[in-house]
Specification:
The complex is a heterodimer of chains A (about 230) and B (about 400). The model of chain A is unreliable at about 1-30 and about 65-70 (pLDDT under 50). Chain A has 2 domains: about 5-155, Up-down Bundle (Four Helix Bundle (Hemerythrin (Met), subunit A)); about 195-235. Chain A has 10 helices and no strands. Chain A is globular, with a radius of gyration of 23 Å. Chain A has about 230 residues and is mainly α. In chain A, helix 3 (about 30-55) packs antiparallel against helix 5, helix 3 (about 30-55) runs parallel beside helix 6 (about 100-120) and helix 6 (about 100-120) runs antiparallel to helix 7. By secondary structure, chain B is mainly α. Chain B contains 14 helices and 6 strands. Chain B has helices at about 1-5, 10-40, 55-65, 80-95, 120-130, 135-145, 145-180, 185-190, 205-220, 230-235, 245-270, 290-315, 320-350, 355-375, and strands at about 105, 110-115, 195, 200, 400, 400-405. Chain B has a two-stranded antiparallel ribbon with strand order 1-2. In chain B, strand 1 and strand 2 form a beta hairpin. Classes of the chains: A mainly alpha (about 230), B mainly alpha (about 400).
Chain lengths: ~230, ~400
Amino acid sequence: MRTFCPSQCDQSVERKRYDRRPLASARGSDRRRCPLLAACIATWLGFSSTVVWASLPTDMAQSTKAAAPGGLLEAFLFYTVAGGVVLSALGVCIAKNIVRMAVWLFAGLGSVAMLYFLLAANFLGAIQLIIYAGGTLVLLVFGVMLTSKSPWVRFDPPKVELIAAAVVCLALVVSLCTVLARTVWSSAEGIVPGATVAAFGERLLTTYLVPFEVAGVLLMIVMVGAAHLARQEE
Amino acid sequence: MRDFITSQFGVSVVLAFIVINVLLGAVSYCIYFERKISAWIQDRCGPNRVGPWGLLQPIADGIKFLVKEDVVPNHVDKPLFIFAPAAIFLVAFIGFAAIPWGGQLELDGRLVNIQVANPDIGLLYILGVGSMSVYGAVLGGWASNNKYSLYGAIRATAQMLSYDIPMGLCILVVVLTMGTLRLEEITLQQTGYWAGWIPQWNIFLHPLAFAILFITALAESNRTPFDLAEAEQELVGGFHTEYSALKFGMFFLAEYAHMITASAFIAVLFLGGWHLPGVSWTQPQATQWYAVLAKIVVLSTKIIFFLFVMMWIRWTLPRFRFDQLMRLAWKGLIPITLALFVLAAALLFFDRQRSPLWALSGNLVILVVALITASSSRLRVTGRQVNLPTIAPATDFVRLGRVEMPL
């Protein structure tokens, strides 16, 4: 017996209109998905193990760092998390579906936050999680959901845009490599400060008060502009 | 080995293990208590067949979830469909790491915190984890490829974004009053007394912020009257319509885990955490093992109290309509919390942040002004939103087999 199911009906209409390929290829074959899944799992393993490590009591984290500078654990965690960052960045580039891109971006932003935690920059890590992973990305996904016509809509930019993007990326890579090669890296012995929030707040409200306030005013202007655009015409 | 176990790291590892397992049990028994309380409120019996008083019902439910067929519909985005319940479950459970359960314990002459982690950013950590909880709902709803699920996901996102703001402002009020982000330190600062017997809990300084934080906690954990993301009458099951078996179970358990986190958080911020006035075992100086157990019992009691109030609200109040929900957040809670924030900043500026007289009178003034504004405005609280068009005949909503629903 065939029952009426709005979602299936919807889907056939949408697929015919927006994507003529069969469903299986639109979602990617199993073979293509395996490495992506593996990468996903690896990222999350790194994520969780770093959460455990980063959430250790501060004195404990310091003593590990002080006892074994560049120790095995730290190196292992760094390479796991850095690998997660690279893999998820690749995932953002390779994925064709915008929501999947957003999920990869989420993994990437989370791994960068973990890098901050590894560097004992707790405040930056938390802010990264709250603002980028928890705020901006939700807005992105929200926008995609409200505007997209079909869940299987694919992101296929034209060739010209691809070439332009490749040129820009290449220039960026070259310049970043130059900077990396030319920088003299300073290394200082000492204990990593565990508590950074108070110092951070003090600097923001004394030395860097003007940039801080300017950023605040900028955000305010953006908010007023957005509210004006979104307002219904009377 | 003994040295490792009695160090802070060892205690943290052991505590993390215990907390996760106890909470997994607790969330399933939350469902039992939810059903019992609903039965009590509606004059029914509730679960009473499995075990004495139905106490084994959660275990039976768990087994049922495990052995049910795990249906993955053909039209879903499979990786995200599987990832979503895992994400919501993970996020719901890592928030507990920063909750101070029982003060300090003396082990082999050393003092260790009964807290999995005591980071400098405790409050921010919980906020960050909480702000990521929306992903489970959003991805689940999106991956299901079902219009009802998608509506549920969009509602969940809009609701969480809106209620994050008053929640953050309420937390800022506490931060301004206490001057620290460490949850253990916040608890410690609330263990003093005014006039010799009134505990210096934050609820006696900023009751309005406490009430608003409780409301936003209800919204953040998707509880009635804010459970629009899964409104049965409108959206079938909301973002978890397509889920079955243990995946659905994970969404279900994550909701209760959120409730427990939120309750523990509010108890620590406003009710002094493990502190109970007049009992010597629950003072910060008591570091024996039985004192720690007493503190854990006190905090758990406060958490259970909040859980009970949340369940009580669920079975008493009807659900909001979506525009009412948004109006409450943007026109009600956010102005009030902004005023509270200014009040807390002013109190801090004049060095009166711990003076209950000034704080309470400020709260009273804000409440009175808010009530006067609300009652004098000509906007009706109920009824259809003013700027929405009149309701069209039902035929206009159905186009191409696609039901256009007002959000």
